[in-house]
Write a structure and sequence with these properties.
By secondary structure, the chain is an alpha+beta fold. The protein has a single domain (12-85), classed as Glutaredoxin (3-Layer(aba) Sandwich). 36% of the residues lie in helices and 21% in strands. The chain has three helices and four strands; from the N terminus they run E-H-E-H-E-E-H. It has helices at residues 21-33, 46-55, 78-85, and strands spanning 11-16, 36-41, 64-66, 72-74. A four-stranded mixed β-sheet has the order 2-1-3-4, sandwiched between helices. Strand 3 (64-66) and strand 4 form a beta hairpin. The radius of gyration is 12 Å and the shape is globular. GO terms for molecular function: electron transfer activity. This is NrdH-redoxin. Residues 12-67 form the Glutaredoxin domain. InterPro entries: GlrX_actino, Glutaredoxin, Grx-like_ET, Thioredoxin-like_sf, Thioredoxin_CS.
């Protein structure tokens, strides 16, 4: 999968790491309300790490979420994710 591919409508792509507590929390929340997501570990995918850095002023901040419209958010709340998907 290309890290540049936009997610399907109604889903998100979440760039994360295995050790990120905020990432784990958001995944749990997404699972609880049935929002689909594709997770990309930036430590396993250097191109994804570069994309995240480009979206965050040079910082590899996670979770970074990409929406179907191509917009992105850093460490969004579940409320924000739901609002941006509707």
């Amino acid at each position: 999968m290309s890290t540049q591919t936009l997610p399907e409508p109604g889903t998100i792509t979440m760039y994360s790491t295995t050790w990120c507590g905020y990432c784990r929390r958001l995944k749990t929340q997404l699972d609880s309300v049935g929002i689909g997501y594709t997770e990309v570990d930036i430590e396993d995918h250097p191109d994804a790490a570069a994309l995240v850095a480009s979206l965050n002023g040079g910082n590899q901040t996670v979770p970074t979420v990409v929406f179907p419209d191509g917009s992105a958010a850093t460490n969004p709340s579940l409320v924000e994710v739901r609002a941006r998907l509707s």
